[in-house]
Amino acid sequence: MRSKNHDSQPSRGRRVASASSKQPKPKKRAGRRVLPFVLLGLLALLVGLVIYISTPPTIPPPPVKPTNVSTVGTTSVADPNVSSPAGASFVRRDKVYTFLLVGTMDDYNTDTIMLGTIDSEKDTVNVLSIPRDTMVDVPAKIKKINSAYGRAGVDELCREVGEVTGIYPDFYAVVNVENFIDIVDLFGGVEFDVPYNMVHLDKDAKYSINLKKGLQTLNGKKALQMVRYRGTSQSDFGRMELQRNFLVTIAKKVVREFSVAQIKDMIPIVNKSLKTNMPVKDMIWFYLNVISSLDMDKDVQFHAMPGTTTGYYNGQSYVYLGATEMLELINQVINPYTTDITESDIHIIHLEN
Q1: For 82-94, what is each residue's pLDDT tens digit?
Q2: What's the pLDDT tens digit per position in 318-341?
Q3: Alpha-carbon span 300 to 293, nearest angstrom
Q4: What are the extents of the domains in the chain?
Q5: CATH code for 95-345?
Q6: Alpha carbon distance 199, 179 (integer Å)
Q7: Strands 300-303, 124-129: parallel, antiparallel or unpaired by DSSP?
Q8: Cβ(102)–Cβ(113) below 8 Å
Q9: Calpha distance 98→330 (Å, rounded)
Q10: Can you tell me the distance from the alpha carbon of 66 to that of 261, in angstroms, rounded to the nearest whole number?
Q11: CA end-to-end distance (rounded Å), the chain
């Protein structure tokens, strides 16, 4: 009997071990049931993200003196019950967006002011340079458009641009040129044709400038010297054109050579050098739907302001806009509306003594 009992105990032990090894199986079956729901959730999140990014930008309404416009297609615009200064009514062209690109060295005066239009249907970008010394009708001693940003902020600058051109920009980007130039080193320098010798010796070596005329690769330090230089024979016109051309050159290089691996290095530069009202989602949309497919030499066109004259008022030099010539060009290349902008839709002044 003892022998039988002894033989039967291991048998019971094996049965217990065998039973215990079967216990986790129901949990595995539960895990398999949950997995499809997790995958479906991730898929739904991905689809939602794609739809979110694929949605065309919504145009923000102007905060000051909005223009009376209506909605066409996917383009959302300002309150149609609010009248423009001239009392006109405008209808926006579908898939056309306007922007203001501003360059500043001191976060006060704006040395570069460019008003542009992006046609996302035709994949074209047209940009018009506005002279920094343009006279504007403001209750200030110095009536230059380049002081609007420092005097009252970017909304005021947008308003004054709208006053003189008839176009209140949908989006703006204020670029601190000195900080933004850090991106030059990130992309290994920028090839640029320096238009003339630039020499300025300063007690502080930090502000000394010594550049030779000609095509060369500029690193960040040399690029900063160039955009700071004020000794051009063309005065502010030359400096404005130089800064504009250099910003365009940087933009072309970034678009051509951009890689996802550079994003982590670009973010700190962009954060300290760029102020914009464009959401990140819209930036991605413009990059995927317009910028990535642009031929920067053919599809992006820059235009100088036509019909300008110069003069002095109360000891300050000014640029006066010529309404007829300006509006002819605006209506040809950057007008976002279905009808022409006329002289009754703008407000420019000419004070001279």
Answers
A1: 334 333 468 899 9
A2: 999 999 999 999 999 999 999 999
A3: 11
A4: 2-52, 95-345
A5: 3.40.630.190
A6: 22
A7: parallel
A8: yes
A9: 12
A10: 41
A11: 130
